[in-house]
Amino acid sequence: MNVQIVQSKNDIKEWLSFPLKLYEGDENYIHPLNNDVEEVFDPDRNKLLKGGEAIRFLIKLNGEVIGRVAAFYNDRLANKGNKQPTGGFGFFECINDKEVAFKLFDISKEWLKDKGMEAMDGPINFGDRDRFWGLLTDGFYPPNYGMLYHKEYYQKFFVDYGFNVYFNQYTYYRIVKGKSFDDRFYKKAKLNINNPDYTFKYPEKDEMDKVPEYFLTVYNKAWAGHSGVKPMDIRQAKMIFKKLKPILDRRLLYFGFYKGEPISFYISVPDINQIFRKFKGKFGLFQKLQFLYYQWKGIIDKSLGLVFGVVPEHQGKGIEAAMVVSYSELAFSEEYEYITTEMNWIGDFNPKMMRVVEQIGGEILKTHKTYRYLFDPNAEFERMPFN
Fold this sequence. Notes:
Layout: E1 2-5, H1 9-22, H2 34-39, E2 52-61, E3 64-74, H3 75-78, E4 86-94, H4 98-114, E5 119-122, E6 135-138, H5 154-161, E7 164-175, H6 183-193, E8 198-201, H7 211-222, H8 234-244, E9 253-258, E10 261-270, H9 273-276, H10 285-297, E11 302-310, H11 319-331, E12 340-347, H12 351-359, E13 363-374
Helix pairs in contact: 6-11, 7-8
């Protein structure tokens, strides 16, 4: 076996394309867009590389790639909430060979040790948690956009090497078209739906420029400070919706208002992976034209829930139920083209959100695990604290 640091354009090409060969014939695999992955390693697009570093490795046998991985750390994040300075590794892909897998873990560990780290989390992204995070261990279905799909044999590699589960993250699933809720759920929701002080709706076309403001108001009250989430400013909020604009369906942006002030949101998007699966990581001019064609053709029948929130002063008042039931008047109708919805990234350390999703009929479809490995075998391992 030969370990190689990814440096040249050809190295990058081999590193990016290896999964296409590894998963060949697996109809559930969807190759992420190469540009999305490369953004992680681009100093101009990934702010964590300022005060941090990332490296990529290939393992080859007789000139053929048989494994890949990336390792990374950021000085500011290394100690944040951790007893040990902690780095990460991700984009782990490997043939079904324990020796190769352990070599990938070893080279990641040794590189992070040299950078002063005492533990590593993986497989994770060197960036936000909403992308490329966790090892798929149950629910081997096609991944949603930004989520990872893995070989079933990977889990045993992690366990045998000595990793511990830091937390589980769940993807919930629900059929929406033609479905309904329990009568008790409707009764609870109607108390707020019939209250004239409350309004629940998606934005009209001429209201779309106000969406970032609605989102910002709720986000900073409901999420800022939660699990270390920083407050957002209007510039950041506008940037988020600018990036989402090419795929937004305003009927998937749902807000609650109390006396005209935004108090809740449920932000969803069409699951564009249903189109991207056709592109094998490429997204040049030809693929962009194809994307527009498939959008027009309406091949996407699944929505992807991104974030749900209610401001603290209205929590526990049945607003969650009112939002869902009010929205269901559209979602359960025949004119609604989305048959199912999936809600990504609900951590087992957040039982309150798990209960909310389960109350509206969501069931766990996929489980990803985030593992932690302590370099000192005598150090005490602790799971992610519960909210």
